[in-house]
Amino acid sequence: MAMVSMAFSLPTLSYPKYRRVNRHSGMAHASVNQEAAASLGVKVTEGEGNLPKVVLTSAGGSGGLPHCFPQFGPGPIQQHGFGRNLDWSILDSGNVEGNPVITLELKDGPYSRSMWDYSFQALYKVILNTKSLSTELTIKNTDNKPFSFNTALHSYFHASVTGASVRGLKGCKTLNKDPDPKNPLEGKEERDVVTFPGFIDCIYLDAPNELQLDNGLGDIITIKNTNWTDAVLWNPYLQMEACYKDFVCVENAKIGNVQLEPEQSWTATQHLSIG
Question: Which reaction does it catalyse (predicted)?
Answer without folding.
Answer: alpha-D-glucose 6-phosphate = beta-D-glucose 6-phosphate
